[in-house]
Amino acid sequence: MEVEEAGGGVENAGKDEVEAEYHSHDFEWEDLRAEVESDPAFSYHLSPFPGPAASTTSPPQPSSEAWRNFHRRHASGKFFKERRYLLKEFPELPNSKDCAKILEVGCGNGSTAVSILRCHEMRKERPDFLRENQCCVGGMDFITMIFTLSAIPFAIMPSTIEQCVCVLKPGGLLLFRDYGLYDMTMLRFLPDQRVGFREYMRSDGTLSYFFTLDTVRELFHAAGLIELELEYCCVRSVNRKKNGKKMQRVWVHGKFLKPPSWR
Ligand SMILES: C[S@@+](CC[C@H](N)C(=O)[O-])C[C@H]1O[C@@H](n2cnc3c(N)ncnc32)[C@H](O)[C@@H]1O
């Protein structure tokens, strides 16, 4: 299901996840929360993070370069599998009208885009690709942010979302999926990998933030979006390559509307 790096894996939607139920609730997030918060071994994940004055480390820098290096190292494109399950999570994508414009923010090697393209190809449609400067203000029907916001420093998430909302049409949808608080990959980070509250840096310099529903709600509401769907997706799976080790995955699924009356 997942390819791991030292100190925290990068999301990799493999076969097991594709086979999982998409709005899955294998376990209750509140039960996981109680378990984690009462375990002294995880206490360092819960403590407030010292502010810049108290901290000896500098705050995380925008990690675009670290991600560029990451994609160079995984240029074969095998690291991130196609995210076909997203077409079930977000049925608007396969059912969108012919000329719908979709912007994928932080597309990586195209795991999400390829799934969407394949589905339109099967319907014998020929998608057009927009150039960077064609993502005009108010021009997009859909924006997908799939495991991208967590890769951006928490401090610049509000301005990043504002820029996304700017290119979305009034009445358009922002489709969101990302790491949830207490996902297995968060609990594996070591104390010295913490770079902020619920924010971690992998050994290669890439960042990962873990969201609660409230954090996601606050970020998108502050940008003026209306919440249509927001929930934890809690999936229990077994890693057959690692002695049948049980894995508790937590993702946040969200769908937000730009008000049709937006001016
Ligand atoms: C975990 S990957 C997810 C990739 C892809 N969305 C997917 O579903 O496979 C995070 C992505 O965020 C992108 N990213 C990180 N910082 C960024 C930034 N400041 N601006 C745009 N993209 C960024 C990275 O290049 C990387 O492709």
From TrEMBL:
Top-level taxon of origin: Eukaryota
UniProt GO MF annotations: RNA methyltransferase activity; S-adenosylmethionine-dependent methyltransferase activity
Protein's GO biological process: methylation
Ranges where the record places region Disordered: 1-21, 47-66
Keyword Methyltransferase appears in the UniProt entry: yes
Biased segments, Gly residues type: 1-11
Keyword NADP in annotation: no
Keyword annotations from UniProtKB, A to Z: Methyltransferase, Transferase
PANTHER family the record matches: METHYLTRANSFERASE-RELATED, TRNA N(3)-METHYLCYTIDINE METHYLTRANSFERASE
Annotated family: Belongs to the methyltransferase superfamily. METL family.
UniProt protein name: Methyltransferase-like protein
Naturally occurring in which organism (per UniProt): Panicum virgatum
